[in-house]
Structure formats: C-alpha cells, structure tokens
Amino acid sequence: METKAAAECQLNKSDDNVIKAYHESGMLYFRPQTEEVIVVEAQDAGEFESHCLEMMKCVDEFHQANHAYSAAIEKYGLQRQKPGMHDTDAQAAEVFAAETALDKKREALLEKLRDDESSNMGYQDVVELIPLLDTRKRGAGNQRLGRRFAYASQRYYSARAGGRSQAGAQKKWRTVSLNNGDTATGQQSIYTVDSRGRRIIDTRKLKAQITQNILPTIKLELKDYINLDDYSLDETLFNWAESWNESVNGSHAFDNGIEISGAAQFMRFVSNVGAEAEFNPGGGSVKIKGEAKASLAVASGIGLAAFYIPDRLGWQVKYTPGEEKQDGSADRAQPFLDMGVMRIYIENRLIGFVGASAQIEAQLQVMAKDKRQQIVAGQRGGRLPRFYERQTGRSGQFYRQMKKEDEGVSVTAEAFAGARAEYALRGAVQWLKPAEPAKAGSAVVPTTVGEFTDLATIGASIAGLAGIGAGAKFHCTFINGKFCFKVAASLCVGLGAKGAFLCEVGGKALMELGRWLAYQLFALDYRFFDLVDKEAFETFTRMCVMQLTDLAKDIYEEFNTAKANILAVQLRFGTFINTLVEGGREGLEASQKRNQLANNILAEPERLLNYTPEAKGILLYLLTRHGLWDHADTDNRGSYLLDIYSDRKEAVIQVLHSIQTKREWLKVMCHRTKDGSSLAAGKSEQQVANEQEQQLRAFLQEGFNRDQNMSRRAAELAALALSEIYHRLKTEQELSRGYALAMNNTEFYNLNRAPNPHFPQQCDFDPCEATATQLA
To answer: 638: pLDDT confidence band, cut at 50, 70 and 90?
Structure first.
C-alpha cells in the first residue's frame, strides 16, 4: 500500500483501519533575523512543525474571532438605525457571545506570548523562519507549513537550538550562519543598502553561499538524517528573497526597505502573516480582520490600522462635578452632565512590539517618549467595559480628577524600539452629534438622527503640550492659538486604561467646537461648565464675536498661525470692541461697523446657535449702541421715514431667537456688556434681566410710528416681542437631549420638548469595511 509521509505527531489511517505514523526526514529553515540556516533533524521535525502550526492556529483564531465580533457589532448598529426598531436584544446577545469568544481567543494567544521578563513590552519574542520546502509535492488538504512563514516561541526555540535537551545531551538542532560569525560557512551579510538607504537582499550572494557553502556542509555532516534531494530551493528561499526586494522597489506606502528585526517579525506574527501570506509580499499586503481594520506591508513589518475605541458604537459618558470620595460618592452642588455618546478614532502606523500589542490587547494605553510624542500600545491585563455596560451607561460616569497612577505611561527606549516618530499616533476624539434639522421648505429628510463628528484631533506633536489640565480626566484650554483637550483614555477606552490623549481643535474647526460646547451648555441648562478652562471659555466667546464682523475671514486660523496666547486674543478683542463703540470723529465708522455686524447676523442667523450666552450678551450690547452719528448714518433708515435701525432690530430678534431655555435667557441678559462680564454682582439675575429687557424694549420701539397700517413685522419688533419669545422658551424639564439645537421660532424647536427616545438608536456607526486600509 502506498503511503504519504507525515510530520511526527500526524497520523495517516490505512484502508484496513490500522493506524501508522510516518516520520519525515529532517527539515531546513532560514532565519532572516540572524541569517542562519536551521537544520531540524528527523526525530524533532514533527514536534517542531506541530508547535509552529499551533502558534499559527492561535493567532489565526484570534483574528477570526475579532472579525466575527466586528460583524456582530455592525449587525447590531444597522438594526438600531432602522426607524422604530427598539427590540435589538437578539443582536445584542450575538455581540455579547462574539465578545466572550474573542476574549477567550485573545487569552489563548497571549498565553503563547507570556514571559516573566519585562523586555519587549512584556511579550515573549517569536522566532521567524522560512521553510525551505517545495509544497508542490504535498497533497491537497495536507496541513503543512509549506511556503508560508513559520513562527516558534523564543522559549521553545532556545531550548532546542541553543541549549541542551532534557536528557542533558548536546543541542539537537544544527545552525549554520551565512554571515561572518561562522568562520566555516559565513562570508558577509546578504543584506545591503541601496542608494536610497533601503535595505534589500543580495539574492546572488544568498544563492552562492547556500549552494556552495551551506548545503555541502550539511549534506556531509547529516547525510544519514536528511535528504537534500527532497528540497527545491529555487522555489522557496530565493523566490521569497526576490519578492521582498520587489516590494521595496514597487510603489509601496512604506518605502523603507526590508525590516528583519525582532520587533518587525513580532509584528508580522500577530498580524497573521503565518496563516495569510505566502512568500510573495510584493504582490499585496496582509489584511488584519476585525474592529482594528488594518493591513500590513509584510517586508517592512509596518502596517496602517484604524481603531474605534471602545468600538464603533461608542458609549455614554456622564460627568459628575466634585471630587470622588473613597465610598464612590461625591460632594457636588450641580447635577451630573450627560455628555452623550463619545468614542476615539485613531489611525496609527503600527510597527514593532508597540504596534503589535495594540492589535491584540483588549485595551489600549497612551504612551509618551520624552514628553514629545504620544503613541498607543496594548495594555497587558486590561479589559474593555463589557458591551452590555457600554450600552446601558454603566461605568460610564467619571469625576474630573484623574487618579495619579492613571495619569500617564512613559515608555522606555527598549520598549520603544521600532516605534519611530514618523509612525506616531493620529486620530480624533469624536462625539455623537444630533442630526441637524432640515432647512425650512426642504424635502430632504435626514437618514439618521445623529452622526459621529470630530471634536478634536490627535497628533504626534501635540504631546509637547504635556501638563495640560494636569490631573484632570477631561480638560479644555487655549494654548498657542488653539483650543486643546486632554481626554483620559479611561473615558473612551474604559476603567483602568492608562494615560490621556492630548488633542487640539485644528484650524477651521471653531464652529464644530462651538456646536459641541453649546450642546453641553444646553444639557446643563447653562450652569457652570467646569470641564472647560475659564479663560479658554472667555477666549472662545471673544473669537465668536470677532468672527461675525467678517464672515469671509477665518479668525481662528489667524490665531492658529500666529500661535497667539490668551492675552493676545484679549488685547485684540479690546481693540475690536473700541472700534464698534467709538464716538467723536470715528462715530460714523463705528455705526457702519455695527450695521455690518447686524447684516452678518441676518446672513447666517443659525451660527448663533453655536455661541455662548456671554457672546450673545455682547452682541446685544453692540447692536443697541446708538448716538448722534447713528442718526446721521443714512444706512440706518428703513422703508419708513421714522423707522430707524431696522437691520439692527432684526438682528437683535435673531439673537433672541437663538436662546434655548429660560435659564439661558437670564444668562444672556446678565452678560449684556461690552466684554461679556456679569451685571449680576450683588443683584439677583432676575432683577438684572428685567432691567435689561426694559432697555431692549426701548431700543426696539425707537422711531416707530404706531400707525394701524404698520406691518405685522413692525409690530413684532415692538414691546410684545420680548415677552412672546421668553414664554415659548423651554424649561429645565423640557430639555430635548438628542435633538439638535434650533431657533426657538421654528416648528422643530416647538415640537421637541422632551429627550429624543430614538437617540442614539438611528445613528451612523460606519460599516465595518468602510475604512479598511489597502496598502497594495
């Protein structure tokens, strides 16, 4: 009966049900990192191959489980997007089951990589080997390493190739070096550097050394244990070397040459190269499955990855003012703030142990090197909050103060090897923004009730802002012309996460910051928002007012470019205010500027929805300044001879239409000053508001002839206008969380006087493959 050889520990069954095991002759491997040929003799070949297959199986099963979890998340998210669909228990159960399975597969993989040492981020090294074997001689379905990369644990490899057997005999495996470390066979390294500084393989030198030096030596020494006639080197090792060189010469995203360091081979291992890639890295890249959507350039050992933390669905974040006590309670005079659903989206160039750990660990930590660069790495022993916890809001509550042990993680030079600066972290902190209402008369109906939007971006250089909001879990301030955030990893990654993301609101992003800030103030019913630095809050208010004088100019970008500090913004704002309230010779010009301010408000009134109550108070103050020069300004005359300041009056009404609640009304009236300072010192807010309302009525009534033929619009601008607007404003019990802010004279505002029961169910969660990275 004809039989087929199998590796040791693999069985073949004959037709007569007699089980026979066949041992193959010894095997040859090439180790790229050390430029050695490894000879595994016959008695060890089966055991070693089984070990490599088990290593491959663990990493492959982890990736498959990760992909299944991602698919379950996508199914759940799509189900939630369906209008009127509330019963998602079945999909949630699938997610939970997939999450549990993923945790088990992750633990099995990490068990293979555990090491008692503290080197290499706490992971045991792996040994990368190239089998010198022609798979064309193997039958279909025979699970052999073949032309794929092989990986062994460092501990297993060292016990056999670098030490003694358990019986005390000499080491079993023969290693032969191509490099000059082995005087009998080595000459010089097969790796060379081309004119562009990229490492490549000299395939002619490789072939010459193996065929002329290595193979004759092995054949002579091990002629009784290994049959070299079984191997076709041209179809394995040399093809592999040529394909690596081709990947360097091609138009590749990572044009940095061949990387064979321990960090690079570890990266290739956890990226599932052993199961996914044959010796043809030039023909494509390995795609990593699951929520960490990524692909790897095999030859360079570097990948691009996109992570959603904790996943694409995000989770509800709630802030409780005050300090946390030992019993978990807190002293607070204010109610908690429901900040809505948040998540972190990061794009990271993965390299080495740091990048590999980010792929396989459940939880990430933010790391810094020399306080100049921030990068993410996996956190050993960390755990994301369970899916059920994230969806019900459990464990999503935080206090401002960060625990000292969680404030940051420094990375040593040893662990940081391979995580070069050019592969640093990029991404954004995102918030689930309610969908904007359709424009009046528009037939377009929003497809979702919300979508994730970048609040602040994460970058490598931002780590230079270390110390921002020291000790705070969430903090916003103004540095070097930009609004900067510190967001503790634990807020979006889960309890126990280490470090904090430092991020910034980039140029041309002031409006998005305003949308987020205005929404948080609304959720608090315009109580003090201590997560934003007081001076940064005032700076934002000043910028909003200055921006309205010239809509074509990007005032925030100007401050970005100039790297202005808070004092510079304050000085410029003071000069700006003076030009709008000047008397004397400059009075006519000031009147014209106030008219332009009114026209800009009328051109984009919805912009006011993103402004603070202090900004609205300043605008009311500026719009109602008038004197002799204003009367002489012909632009202030309307269609009626006695009607004056019609545009300014209309702008005042638009400012009032942007007010959301009765409490905000009080805040706006109390800050009706040229710099937004409060008028309520020593007085009640209601008393101050009554006084300011009287002044507004006087301005709105100025110049009107109370003729019966006046239009309804003129009548609205009279004294009754203020009381009508005030009485339709929402109370604290009517806060409509989950709906976008809208002008209070719209039907959208009036209909939505309770929290949105569909938020965040019908939201855009981004399909699984939408941002999958392709490198080839």
So the answer is: low
